Amino acid sequence: APCAGLSGVNRVVLVAGSACADIHVAVSIPSFAIQSAVRVPVVYFDYSYVRAIPFPSYPGHVGLEKRTLLKIDCTPYYQWAQATTYAVLTDGSQFQVSSHSSWTSTAPAVIAVAGSTLQSQGVTGDAVVTSAWFQTVSREYAMAVSPAVATATAVQVIFKSFAAQNTLRGPVGYERRIGVRLDFDDTTQFTDFLTRVPWVPTADLVTLTSSAAAGATIDASSGAVTLRDNYFERIDITATSVCDAGTAGDEALAANLYPAVGDVDLGGDFGLQFSQDGDTLAVEVRVNVGSSQLKNFQIDVDIDPAVFAAAACDQGADWGGLWTCTINDPVDVVTVVGNDADSTETGAVRVATIYLTVLSAS
Q1: Is the pTM of this model over 0.70?
Q2: Is the separation of the CB atoms in 165 and 257 below 8 Å?
Q3: I need a surface site. Which of 32, 67, 191, 237 has the fewest CB within 10 A?
């Protein structure tokens, strides 16, 4: 009896219960006297197995099997794992079939199963997790929750979606979230602790601090960094292990306000607002007109003549109309004037760069 047949025009379907090693498929086009044939090897399901890895997964976890869930440092919480069911075919190839599997635990008070995530419940003990594939093939996987401790050995702060040069740039109240990575002595990692380890409250494992709340603050739970004001130096955002104050990591940001619509901004776009080069301070001047068009302007920049002397002034890269810049008349004001009835410039328009010589520290 044939072990396969055609379904529709071009689909070959194996007959249930067949055991042939290959099938022969022939195609012909009589009107063109064309014939062709191909022999297709047939492989069958051989066996399945279950394997668990740390949850959440991380680069380098391949080959690390997880059968024991450890206590997470000095917290009352334990590790989780991610189980996967694999189907192996007679040619040795294998495929993940977890999405077609159902999962149960013999001790849900020790390890509960949500999808294929193995969730420790805060008590030690043993459990056997069973995967049923298509309700016909079952495989068991023995797990344990141990009182042994996985100790954090390194903490790293990761800036997400910050502007160039690690700049927190926006209006007052602008937010960006950081990431925190923790490495443990059992080789596991939480590469994004704040968002991918929801069962451990942030404050139970790390403290988050800002070295200058006047420029940027940080939410101790979510890791949201909020811009408060321009700041004269970089601000350290630090994550410190609750269990060992000597295990910490930090990253420095530049707090740099973006001008509101109708406002004038002084200083650089990215990095610190002002950055001195030797005894020279270059101060870029921008006008934010939003969706309107900048046609004319007069900007007076006040300086402290005991600290600065105006040395020069260049026309801004975005401004092509009439332009004048008056320095040292008087010595404590730089006046920039522009006019262009045909200008179509919108947004934050660069209109000038003022060069100041630093005379003394303020």
Answers
A1: yes
A2: no
A3: 32
